[in-house]
Specification:
The protein is an alpha/beta fold and about 375 residues long. The protein has 13 helices and 12 strands. The longest helix has 16 residues. Bound molecules: glyoxylic acid. Glyoxylic acid binds next to loops.
């Protein structure tokens, strides 16, 4: 019987699907991640598949432990910076992720974060709850900033960046796009067509626009900056994204601008951001991801002095019921993870990992001609 170890629960429907498939599934019950020593021990015991979360560091040590038995690592996330791709390739173990199914949920959460931040919804609710709302007033005790008609910079135009663009265009925003590696000119042209149509038919009062620009123009021209790049270190690429938002790039932003990050924590230099918020270099930030998760108690982002302009969430952007738990691989991360395991263990697609839709490191299996 094929054996699977999951470093976390992935919900009853997907777990049952694997069991009904005849696999022996052992699940670490958490809620925290298991220690790496336990993962190594399970892999060494000869499991066929390992289901991981972004909290697990999967590297040569793990692949070495699974030599001859481990056939697939299936990650329940789209991001896979916790998995050492070079090591997976060296050991020829395919690893999979859950792209696509969380695109819309993550983008909508990013947009809602932006709304909560800009319209000061948290401060407003606190006022009511704490009985500190003296009276309706045209501008006291504070006002928020509109989203409609403003300009957003989308940093990274992969799947989630494009979905964010779609949502922002529906709110009549102008859009500056920046991507260090990839331009989707066709998508951007289609959005411009939709914007023009909305204006021409009177659905939208002001004409809006979208274009690719360089990073300086994106950061300096935007009222909102939303980050959608993967975490890439300089050992991985000549276009690293580690601390892409730092003291220097924060200074390019308008003092009235807001930053939203739903990508990976280390893309933002948190120390520099906390200082920029304190010194009012920018107006506010909403973060769903952190350099260290959970956010440590001594994080400068928890400074009460910046609490009014800093919204913090628990890496929750894809955290919606269907997106996380649906057993349907076209709808849920759990379903896609289970399907990815089945594809590899059953040798679907002629047993060729380069043809399996959820495998990331296809390059390790390409036949050299
Ligand atoms: C979540 O952060 C993911 O990468 O899916």
């Amino acid at each position: 019987m094929k054996r699977i170890f999951a470093t976390s629960r992935i919900g009853d429907p997907a777990e049952n699907r694997l069991r009904e498939h005849g696999y022996e599934l052992e699940v670490f019950q958490g809620p925290e991640a298991p220690p790496k020593t336990l993962i190594i021990e399970k892999v060494k015991s000869g499991i066929d598949a390992l289901i991981t979360t972004l909290r697990d560091r999967i590297d040569a040590e793990v692949f070495e432990a699974g030599k001859g038995s481990l056939k697939v690592v299936a990650q329940i996330a789209v991001g896979f910076d916790n998995i050492n791709r070079a090591d997976a390739n060296k050991y020829k173990v395919p690893f999979t992720h859950t792209a696509d199914v969380l695109t819309e949920a993550t983008a909508e959460f990013g947009f809602f974060m932006l709304g909560v931040l800009a319209r000061k919804m948290y401060s407003s609710e606190r006022l009511v709850r704490e009985q500190k709302w003296p009276s309706w007033h045209p501008f006291l005790p504070f006002l928020g900033d509109e989203v409609t008609g403003k300009t957003i910079a989308i940093i990274g135009t992969g799947r989630i960046g494009l979905a964010m663009i779609k949502k922002c265009s529906g709110f009549d925003m102008n859009i500056l796009c920046y991507d260090p590696a990839y331009h989707n000119d066709k998508y951007i042209a289609s959005i411009q067509e939709l914007m023009d149509l909305r204006y021409a038919t009177g659905i939208q009062k002001e004409r809006t626009w979208i274009k690719y620009v360089e990073i300086e123009e994106a950061l300096s021209g935007a009222d909102y900056v939303s980050i959608h790049v993967p975490l890439l270190l300089d050992i991985d690429t000549d276009k690293p994204t580690y601390h892409f938002i730092n003291e220097k790039t924060l200074k390019l932003m308008k003092p009235t601008a807001y930053l939203v990050n739903t990508s990976r924590g280390p893309v933002v230099d948190e120390k520099a951001l906390a200082k920029a918020l304190k010194d009012k270099v920018i107006a506010g930030a909403a973060l769903d991801v952190f350099e260290k998760e959970p956010l440590p108690a001594d994080s400068p982002l928890l400074d009460p002095e910046i609490a009014d302009r800093t919204r913090l969430f628990h890496h929750f952007a894809s955290g919606a019921q269907i997106t996380r738990l649906s057993v349907d691989p076209d709808k849920g991360m759990a379903g896609r993870t289970a399907q990815a395991v089945i594809d590899v263990l059953e040798g679907s697609y002629g047993g060729d990992p380069t043809k399996m839709p959820y495998v990331v490191n296809k390059e390790a299996f390409e036949k050299k001609s």
